[in-house]
Amino acid sequence: MVLYEDLRIYTIWRTEAAQYKQQQLAYKKNSEEWEILGELAERLHHPDEAVEAWQACLTMRFSPKAMRGVLRLYERHGDNRGMLGALIRLIAWQYRWYSEFSPDLYYAIRKLIEDDGAVKVRSIIQATSLPQHILDLTHQYAGLCAAFRSDGTEG
């Protein structure tokens, strides 16, 4: 029953979006609706539509759920710079609200370091124009990878 309801809502969304696009009108939803539509599209295995909805949500306000979805897209496409940008925002959000370590974020940054190497990742982080305390938070995650001698952290 849930699958049919998901399919019904998804079909209505895509039909409305196509009609608005055809009439050259802006398709407006609030950020929570975009977030829900992104989750719906992901459940139905439509990753491009999911990312479209999550990006629409992120243009209105920051949502960790939407940012994690976009992070998965960057990871799937191998866009390491986009992945690092999403990671920095998620790390700052995690610290702001929970002041603690996130295993998911650690895993993502470890994977990034394995692909590009620790020196390159740290250099990219340092090259951003973000405040130093945000950079320090991100460097802590990279430092954990070095402490545990993850692949990509040697010399």
Tell me about this structure.
- The structure is a single chain.
- The chain is mostly helical and 155 residues long.
- Helices cover 78% and strands 0% of the residues.
- It has eight helices and no strands.
- Helix 5 packs antiparallel against helix 6.
Helical coverage, percent range: over 70%
What is the CA-based Rg, rounded?
18 Å
Global geometry: elongated
> What oligomeric state do the depicted chains represent?
single chain
* Continuous helix count: 8
Structural class, by secondary structure, is mainly alpha
Give the distance, in angstroms, between the N- and C-terminal Cα atoms.
55 Å
Largest sheet: none
Which secondary structure elements does this structure contain, and how are they paired or packed?
Blueprint: H1 2-22, H2 31-43, H3 47-60, H4 64-77, H5 80-98, H6 103-116, H7 118-127, H8 132-147
Which short descriptors sum up this protein?
single chain; 155 residues; mainly alpha; 8 helices
Q: In summary, what is this structure?
A:
The protein is mainly α and 155 residues long.
